[in-house]
Amino acid sequence: MHSGRKIVTKDCARRRISKRNRCEAAALYRQTKASVFGYALSLPKNPYDAEDVLHDCFVSIYSAAEGYVASGKPMAWILTITRNLCLQKLRSSRACDVPLEELELYLRERAALTLEDRALIEYCLAALSDSEREILLLHAVSGFKHREIADMLALPLATVLSKYSRSLKKVRTHLAKEERTDDK
Q1: If you ran DSSP here, which 8-state letter would residue 72 be given?
Q2: What percent of the chain has pLDDT over 70?
Q3: First-to-last CA distance in the chain?
Q4: Are 156 and 150 in contact (CB under 8 A)?
Q5: Low-confidence ranges of the chain (pLDDT < 70)
Q6: Cα–Cα dist 77/112, whole Å
Q7: Which of 46, 51, 79, 157 has its CA 20 to 30 A from that of 90?
Q8: Closest to 29 in 3D by CA, of 83, 108, 69, 82
Q9: DSSP 52
């Protein structure tokens, strides 16, 4: 699901990236920043690190613009850069996870999310493992197919499918448990 956003096509990406045009780069940023940030947040689970990765990703894209050759899906290339930057950040920081309270504070600052959306996101993210969260966000938020996710993460398709299914079951169970608690 792309929630009304345009899909980054090869021709669009080639024009926006390879010319190293600031206006085109800004348009690419506006078009993809939500997906990049959401994916970046899924790995370190720290909103401040995710923002750093978001900006570093687009600096990397802009720096490599002249040599960019569109092959495959441009969004997959962008998210691969994002993933690599997240892994670099995790390796270098060796920091503990940010407490859920800090994530809640960050989400409160985002006006585009309703209170209900924020609560649901926080609740669901807390129930998932890192790999489940990553696969769920790539599919549900960024709109990648399971096969594309498998290729991106270098995992067997069956593993991606089972982790996706497991994450959905966890979310449903987690939400049902909360609903039962609310009914009491």
Answers
A1: S
A2: 67
A3: 35
A4: yes
A5: 1-21, 65, 68, 70, 91-113, 118, 141-142, 182-184
A6: 27
A7: 157
A8: 82
A9: H
Task: Report d(CA 139, CA 64) in Å as an integer.
Answer: 27
- Residue among 112, 107, 148 at smallest CA distance from 124: 107
Q: H-type helices in the chain, by residue range?
A: 10-18, 22-42, 47-63, 74-93, 100-109, 115-127, 130-140, 146-153, 157-183
pLDDT single digits (tens) 119-140: 777 777 788 888 888 888 778 7
138 touches 80 (CB < 8 A): no
Contact in structure between 44 and 90 (CB atoms under 8 Å): yes
Token pair for 139: 């599919």
d(CA 57, CA 37): 10
Q: d(Cα 99, Cα 91) in Å, to the nearest integer?
A: 19
* pLDDT value at residue 26: 82
Is pTM beyond 0.70 here?
no
Cβ atoms of 97 and 55 within 8 Å: the answer is no
DSSP-derived letter for residue 113 is S
Give residues with Cβ within 8 angstroms of 86, minimum separation 6.
Answer: 40, 43, 44, 49, 50, 53
Chain mean position to CA 169? 20
Question: Which residue bears the tokens 């197919």?
Answer: 145
